């Protein structure tokens, strides 16, 4: 699944909208296959590779999708993970899975990003000196 430029812009817009009122950071990483077969383990590797663990408040969220393998993971850094309700990431994954089942990856990712943004806004509202610490661009494997 290669995203069209329009689809990439749609996801970037969803990220920017979700990050608008929070100090949290959201990234999306897409690749065809999950190299080790375990999407959560791969998400942890990508999270580190993208430097997401270096945000000031440990409030980064990674949406990882290996589209040909039909595997995905949502990974929140320790700061946000400690604050969201139990089962929150599973709720987001269930919402995304509904769209993925219809091969609507862009809509599934957009809805997941929106939900994560709401939690980030609640627990990590933006502050005066807030900076976009990580790129909003889609990373590709």
From TrEMBL:
Residues 2-118 form the TPM domain. InterPro entries: TPM_dom. Gene3D superfamilies: 3.10.310.50. Pfam families: TPM_phosphatase. PANTHER family: BLL7265 PROTEIN, UPF0603 PROTEIN YGCG. This is TPM domain-containing protein.
């Amino acid at each position: 699944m290669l995203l069209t430029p329009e689809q990439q812009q749609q996801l970037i817009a969803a990220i920017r909208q979700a990050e608008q009122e929070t100090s949290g950071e959201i990234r999306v990483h897409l690749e065809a296959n999950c190299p080790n077969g375990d999407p959560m383990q791969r998400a942890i590797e990508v999270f580190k590779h993208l430097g997401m663990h270096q945000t000031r408040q440990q409030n980064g969220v990674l949406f990882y999708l290996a589209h040909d393998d039909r595997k995905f993971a949502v990974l929140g850094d320790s700061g946000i993970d400690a604050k969201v309700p139990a089962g929150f990431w599973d709720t987001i994954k269930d919402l995304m899975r509904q769209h993925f089942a219809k091969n609507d990856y862009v809509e599934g990712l957009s809805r997941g990003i929106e939900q994560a943004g709401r939690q980030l806004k609640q627990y990590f509202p933006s502050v005066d000196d807030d900076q976009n610490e990580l790129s909003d661009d889609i990373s590709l494997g």
